[in-house]
Structure prediction request, 80 residues.
Amino acid sequence: MTPRTWLLISWIVVGATVLVAHAAMVWQVIRSKDPPGRQRWWALVPAVAPYLAFKDRRWITLGIWTTSVVAYLVLRALEG
Prediction:
């Protein structure tokens, strides 16, 4: 397999990890009681979900999401 094939496979795996971690983060924030009332539903906005997870102290999910996003950006930088 060529290096470009491995890069593509890595993008797919890391991208799937970002999506699953993001879905778990949204689910945890919506199910929690810390953000009161309607504030929890702001987690459905993609840019707000990591902030609310940080505010709700969801460290593991937020750590997995952050690490995956950084890994994706590094892989994109390796593309050139």
